[in-house]
Design goal:
coiled coil, alpha/beta, three-stranded antiparallel sheet, single chain, vWFA_dom_sf, VWFA domain-containing protein
Length: about 575
């Protein structure tokens, strides 16, 4: 008999826990969920290691082969559910529950004062009526309170069994007692909840979503040990990747955002923003020109005195010399042979971004869009226009300069006064008056423009602009040492704001307004924004909020191109 060569060498493959995850898979993105948490809540203390693990989505292929598969656990639970439904029937237990309820109701001796309410509670099967009777039963003594509790319990059993019969389709023949039916209802609901958790875990590899204690009631101990080991490995992966991506834990086990995490998040923001722009419309291409200085163009011109020979077009210069000199050697260059590349410079741009953090910016989470835009703009200027001047101003009842690292913690101010008509003023020169005593949720565009102008006026570039992001009319302004808070918006506040805009125009500062939607926005808000923008040769952009970062960044890039051209 001839021997066959080859055959099955090994039929079982499994990931080595030491090499988890497979090196070919990209690392999970932990920075984005961490920043989204911080953008929403304005702080990072609430995101623990467990919460971060729940927020991260992994590739499910990374956990294949580690412990029992998700599909195996789902099949086990679905088989258990199928056997229960094929074993029992629900009609007879419904009759038992109904009979027990009416029997308990008949045994109650109810006083005449409470008889009508009791009758309605039984006929309508309303637990809240029985509850009100139970509170009133204390005045009548006896066993009335105990009897009413029994009736309420039987009514609850009847409702739960009716819910069981309507929710699940039983096809078996074995009857159930009321306690057995309630026990089966609890078991089926646990199975449904676990199937939902396993389904989500199969999509995102979030093992932390699975209730291990509940699953242990159905799975074998060996499978649970392997599943627990898988969960620990996923958590270790999350912890290691968090530290690698710039999320550092403090002594309390909470994560802290580092500059490295900011850089990663800003890079992903820019990638998303510019990838959403149609190439035919944007024409944006990544080049190797970074920072300030001369940009070499394809066009050339003859050399003129004063031109830098660093921009010489060497191939064309040599060709000109050959055409003039012919075969004569050595080749000698003359001034009229030299061709120079035309160049243009990257001028500096100076920008102040005014971010509205008044009380109305909480509407629809607009403050998150503002903060996301600010982080993206700062990342763009750092990476592509490092010579540009950029400042951020938080606008509310006051105006304050904010460092880029403080943006993530900004939150819309709480509304501290709800009167429909507000006429307040505060003397800022009074040493006994502090900011903490003043309502913070008003919108002081005038003071914000003044602070932006003071920061831009000394910049050594004529290209200066203010990016004002707000949702409507100003409701606060300053006059000398007095701060006025006026709502509804008052013409006096608008006039003070327009005077400050005129001073910006006098200094050559353009105001571009990005108007985000708000529940209180009206046609007058839009007219005011148009008047202010026109007074400084600026523009008004209407955004949905979600597109704010794309609008602001692309407008910045377009302005740079227009200045260069």
């Amino acid at each position: 008999m001839n021997k066959r060569l080859g055959g099955i060498i090994h039929a079982y493959q499994k990931y080595d826990p030491a090499s988890f995850p497979p090196p070919s898979e990209p690392p999970p993105d932990l920075v984005t969920p961490a920043f989204e948490q911080a953008l929403m809540y304005g702080e990072f203390r609430e995101l623990s290691e467990e919460e971060l693990a729940r927020a991260v989505r992994l590739d499910p292929s990374q956990i294949q082969g580690l412990g029992p598969s998700i599909d195996f656990l789902k099949a086990m639970l679905e088989e258990r559910k199928r056997k229960i439904l094929e074993t029992y029937e629900a009609r007879s237990v419904q009759k038992k529950a109904r009979k027990a309820f009416h029997s308990a109701a008949k045994d109650v001796r109810i006083p005449k004062k409470l008889a009508e309410t009791y009758r309605q509670a039984i006929n309508r099967e309303q637990p809240y009526l029985l509850e009100s009777l139970w509170y009133r039963a204390e005045d009548h003594g006896g066993s009335l309170s105990t009897d009413l509790l029994k009736v309420a319990a039987r009514m609850g059993d009847k409702h739960n069994i009716e819910e069981l019969a309507s929710k699940y389709e039983f096809t078996g023949n074995e009857s159930m007692s009321v306690p057995k039916a309630l026990e089966i209802k609890e078991e089926l609901e646990k199975i449904d909840e676990l199937l939902k958790q396993l389904e989500e875990a199969a999509k995102s590899a979030q093992i932390g979503l699975i209730d291990m204690d509940m699953l242990s009631e159905f799975a074998q101990p060996g499978d649970m040990e392997q599943l627990e080991e898988m969960r620990r490995q996923v958590e270790n992966l999350i912890r290691e990747e968090a530290e690698r991506q710039g999320l550092q834990r403090d002594s309390a086990g909470q994560f802290r955002l580092t500059p490295h995490a900011y850089k990663i998040f800003q890079g992903r923001l820019l990638e998303r923003i510019f990838s959403e722009l149609a190439p035919s419309r944007s024409g944006r291409h990544h080049g190797n020109v970074i920072g300030e200085g001369a940009v070499e163009l394809q066009q050339t011109k003859p050399y003129e005195f004063g031109d830098s020979v660093a921009n010489m077009d060497i191939p064309q210069t040599v060709i000109n010399a050959l055409l003039r000199q012919g075969d004569e050697r050595p080749l000698r260059l003359r001034g009229d042979d030299i061709e120079i590349h035309k160049t243009r410079n990257h001028p500096k741009c100076a920008t102040c971004v005014i971010m509205d953090m008044s009380g109305s910016m909480r509407y629809d989470g607009q403050y998150m869009n503002v903060k996301r835009m600010a982080l993206a703009l700062q990342g763009l200027i750092q990476s592509e226009y490092p010579g540009d001047f950029l400042r951020f101003i938080e606008m509310y009842t006051f105006a304050k300069l904010r460092a880029p690292g403080e943006i993530i913690n900004l939150m819309p101010k709480p509304v501290t006064i709800h009167d429909p008509w507000v006429r307040l003023k505060a003397d800022l020169s009074d040493q006994n008056v502090s900011e903490a005593q003043i309502h913070p949720h008003f919108t002081n565009i005038q003071r914000s423009l003044q602070l932006a102008r003071q920061n831009l006026v000394n910049c050594d570039t004529p290209n200066r602009q203010i990016v004002l992001i707000t949702d409507g009319l100003p409701t606060a302004h300053c006059e000398d040492e007095w701060l006025y808070m006026l709502y509804p918006p008052d013409p006096r506040t608008e006039q003070a704001t327009m005077r400050e805009a005129a001073l910006c125009a006098k200094e050559g500062i353009t105001i571009n307004i990005f108007l985000v939607p708000s529940w209180s926005q009206s046609e007058e808000d839009i007219r005011f924004a148009n008047r202010m923008a026109q007074s400084t040769s600026g523009r008004v952009f209407f955004t949905s909020g979600n597109n704010l970062d794309r609008f602001v960044l692309w407008d910045y890039v377009q302005n740079k191109r227009e200045i260069i051209a």
